[in-house]
Specification:
The structure is a single chain. About 40% of the residues lie in helices and about 30% in strands. With about 210 residues, the protein is an alpha+beta fold. It has one domain. It has a seven-stranded antiparallel β-sheet. The protein has a two-stranded antiparallel sheet with strand order 8-9. A hairpin with a 4-residue loop joins β4 and β5. α3 runs antiparallel to α4 and α4 packs across α5.
Length: about 210
């Protein structure tokens, strides 16, 4: 059992359960499931209707989200990979916070085509509760996907301006910081009032926020 930093009784498994619940309410997400199994989850997978998820027409008819959060030993923050995958075009666009590519900082955005990375840029770190981070990254996907350009059958993020990355992440971070500060303050009140474990208090607050 893996406990996440600063999350009393909040394990990797219960976090993925909350990610699962969050995606079931996300527009365009269908068939949300655990991989490899609900008993031993490592990823949450969701089939996606791109038009509904992105809020407009899109070239690909199908896509999926692949989401993983984990907590490696000796690290004081969560690792995650939040990926948008288009199987028909063998394309993956993801926000990754892990030990890879430390020259780009703690977090980066990566575009992969036919199992080859074609672009990778540093991305602003979101210092927030994992579910708030997930919300922010989901909100950033439309702009990130729109930034993909195709030439001779090869995609790129060459039009991905730093200003978009910073402005989106900055707005999200500001919103997340305010939201998480409030969550931290009110979680204790809810715990005391109802005498319930922290993760259930967090769930109530995430729904409210």
């Amino acid at each position: 059992m893996i406990f996440l930093a600063g999350r009393d009784r909040y394990t990797q498994r219960t976090l993925l359960e909350d990610v699962h619940d969050r995606l079931t309410s996300q527009a365009g997400c269908e068939a949300v499931r655990y991989q490899p199994s609900r008993r031993r989850p490592r990823y949450i997978i969701a089939d996606v209707d791109p038009t509904a998820f992105l809020g407009g027409s899109y070239d690909a008819e199908t896509a999926r989200l692949e989401i993983r959060f984990w907590y490696p030993a000796g690290v004081d923050h969560e690792y995650y990979r939040i990926n948008w995958v288009e199987p028909d075009r063998n394309l993956m666009l993801g926000f990754h916070q892990d030990a890879d590519h430390s020259e780009l900082g703690r977090c980066h955005i990566q575009l992969t085509h036919k199992d080859t990375t074609v672009d990778r840029y540093g991305s602003t770190v979101l210092d927030a509760h994992p579910l708030a981070v997930l919300d922010d990254r989901l909100q950033q996907f439309p702009a990130a996907i729109e930034a993909i350009r195709w030439k001779d059958g090869v995609p790129s993020l060459s039009t991905w301006p730093e200003s978009i990355s910073i402005s989106l992440a900055g707005q999200s971070s500001a919103f997340s910081s305010a939201r998480v500060t409030s969550m931290s303050r009110y979680t204790l009140s809810i715990q005391s009032l109802f005498d319930i474990p922290p993760r259930f208090a967090v769930r109530l607050l995430v729904k409210a926020f």
